[in-house]
Amino acid sequence: MFVTNRLLGLSRWVLRRFPALLERSPLIKDGRRLADWRGPSLQWQRSLPLPGWQMLELSVSGAEAGAEAVLEVFGEDGTTPEYRFAIPLANGDLSKRLVYVPGGRRRLNLGFPDASGDFAVTRFRLAWVRDGFARPRVARRLTGIHPKWKHLGAAEAEAGLASEGSRWTSTVLPPYEQTFRRRTSGAGYDEWRENHPDISDDTARQWLMELGSGPRISVVMPVYDPQPEYLRACLESVLGQSWPHWQLCIADDASTDPEVKAILDDYQQQDDRIEVCFRPSNGHICAASNSALALAKGEFVALVDHDDLLEPHALLHVVRALRENPGAALLYSDEDKVDSAGAFYAPHFKADWNPELILAQNYISHLGVYRRDLVMEIGGFREGYEGAQDHDLLLRCVAHLEDPESEVVHIPRVLYHWRASEGSTALAGSEKSYAEEAGLRAVNDYLAGKGEGARAVSGEFPNTYRVHYPMPEPAPLVSLLVPTRNGVDILRPCVDAILERTGYRNFELLILDNQSDCPETLAYMEEVARRDERVRVLRWDYPFNYSSINNFGARQARGSLLGLINNDIEPLDGSWLSEMVSQVVRSEVGCVGAKLYYPNDKLQHGGVILGLGGVAGHSHKFADRKAPGYFYRLMLAQNLSAVTGACLLVRKEVFWQVGGLDEEHLAIAFNDVDLCLKVREAGYRNVWTPHAEAYHHESVSRGKEDTPEKQARFASEIAWMKQRWHHELQNDPAYNPNLTKAFEDFSLG
What mean pLDDT comes out for the span 695-706? Predict the structure, then answer.
């Protein structure tokens, strides 16, 4: 309960960002001057709050996903902020967090550094709270997110803080604020690189001693008319490798610039590990790559373009990964881009091996390192696939592996810098249609080899693809399970939309009624069951337990496929169920999830990422409906560790194989995540598809966690998940350890 003997707040006020008109104009409410406009910020003129912890509430409509406000607390001089508190914004949604305002402060400033266009501040409130209210919440956030606090349990951390007495605030303020700090891949990347340097030279020397001679890596480099200064920089990045057992295999594809030949001759004479062949005529990149590949003598080959850069310890990291994964056949790292001034930007922090995502785009790309005998076995690069030669090579290699899950190894470090020069595909918008066409053929060749009848088409964005999987004949019966209690206003739109907007016809809809006593709701359920023979109403006359009621429905289901459907879901179009069925019937697939939106067309569910906020969170939450997401991931089917049970399909045999939903420990929250992790543990892959879309009026029927009983139950479910799935929550293979666990937008960690 908030203690509000002094409260700053307003119920409704609107700011329009027209600086020419509003610069330094006052904000007036009920005839009182509350604040002054200062560019995109507000300065308070009213009395300041009581010293201590405050619960801050802020709602801003028109704010883009990923934007933030900043509350600055000024000292006695009134010129320099002593504290800065970041407030992540979600368009129209209420943002809440604790902030600390010491005594003797003279001014508060609420700024909007990311604001663009018009926006409206619809709520701002500061409410003083007691230490006993703030401390457990601070402890939960730190132990859930901050890397140096994660080893502690929330109760243990809270007890430790309480033992410090009044000093606990100074202990937690810096790390607590770090959990709210968002670093983007734009301006924040330079700072991120400074805070995350590569291994030291001393560590490199220690690794070299431990690894001994190790494997030789042949760097395969086709060359054709690069800018001379970029070619030299690329060659120097190979010469500067701390791992000494390399071979540089260069094939010059009849470059027209004589300086290129002079540079290559010079470097070949400098180091006998460099071998160059000069092709008599230009054969394009596949032919040139094969010429370079023919020079390779190492156990592994690394693919490097003629103007890109390797990190100094890149090959050392590869060899160390090979020592830890002796069965590896293919390794890849994270990457970024380098501009003409030598600045690094746009890092791509990748997922681990993701079979669905690699068909949708070549997310693996650079640095790619392959076992040489595997590359030779498949015949090297295929001419005619120029522009997508790496994607084609990768897919053909993967098709020859017995267990890609263990033989494809991801090194989560930026080891490769992709040159963004004129004509390079590293520059946005420079992708060529021939590359996309070649990539589409490569994906379809791979699918044809699988013999499942799947086919790929071009995606919505360049060099992305969508795979259509065939529907089995006859079409299996799907049992859609819809738990509900009263709430006809949300149940009717859900059920009617499913019945009217589902092109896949072979389904039954089981309304699982949990003690409804609303006459209108009861009448509707009776009417819809009478109107449509696909609808059955089943009574569950026990206290609400999401896991129990769905397990009950699954036992009554006649279909071979189960659909967990919240009673506040509304499909967007008729293809949603067909898309999900075509995925879930595949033998290797476990759970399948959909793309869900709030009614305002902001994203609610783009898949579940483990570890976000401590247990799990939704990918790209609050992003715009058409936003591509992190490297287009909002538009691409992919394997994820978990998907939400608000709209989830699973084969009934798989559901019961893992014991269904956990009724004992997870009555309300995280039961869907637990189910997905059990399914993955059993050897299946979970799939999230953006091609099945629906609206989700989240938690309208159940309400918020706003009572001590609900909060205690929620805390116990968090504790159970951390105990049961501790390792998995810290290591989501569909995410990247360099990305944040504090936000849901793939910003930097």
Answer: 62
Give me the CATH number covering residue 363.
3.90.550.10
One-letter identity of residue 313: H
Strand partners, 35: 27, 44
What is the tally of structural domains in the chain?
Answer: 3
Digit-coded pLDDT (tens) for 74-130: 876 667 778 888 887 766 677 888 988 887 666 778 887 766 666 677 777 888 888
List Cβ neighbours of 157 (8 Å cut-off, separation of 6 or more). Answer: 139, 142, 143, 149
Contact 306, 231 (CB under 8 A): yes
Position 349 in a domain: yes
Whether residue 509 contacts residue 534, with contact meaning beta carbons closer than 8 Å, is answered with yes
- What are 96's strand-pairing partners? 57
Report yes or no: 35 and 28 within 8 Å, Cβ to Cβ.
no
Question: Rounded to an integer, what distance in angstroms lies between the CA atom of residue 109 and that of residue 547?
Answer: 46
pLDDT at residue 14 greater than cutoff 80: no
Range of the domain at 103: 7-129
* Higher pLDDT among residues 655 and 140, named by residue: 655
Residue 324: partners with Cβ closer than 8 Å, 6 or more residues away = none
Q: What is the SS3 assignment for 736?
A: coil
Q: Which whole-number Å values give the CA distances from 562 to 595, 650, 661, 690, 726, in the listed order?
A: 18, 5, 12, 19, 28
Whether residue 419 is found in the same domain as residue 504 = no
Q: How far apart are CA 512 and CA 500, in angstroms?
A: 20
Question: What percentage of the chain reaches a pLDDT higher than 70?
Answer: 87
**If residue 249 lies in a helix (H) or strand (E), which one and from where to where?**
strand 246-252
Q: At what angle do helices 131-145 and 154-163 cross, to 10 degrees?
A: 130
- Helix (H) or strand (E) segment spanning residue 526: helix 519-531
CA 260 to CA 288: how far, in whole Å? 15
Cα–Cα dist 281/254, whole Å: 5
Q: Is 55 helix (H, G, I), strand (E, B) or coil?
A: strand
Enter the pTM of the model.
0.83
Q: What's the confidence (pLDDT) of residue 184?
A: 59
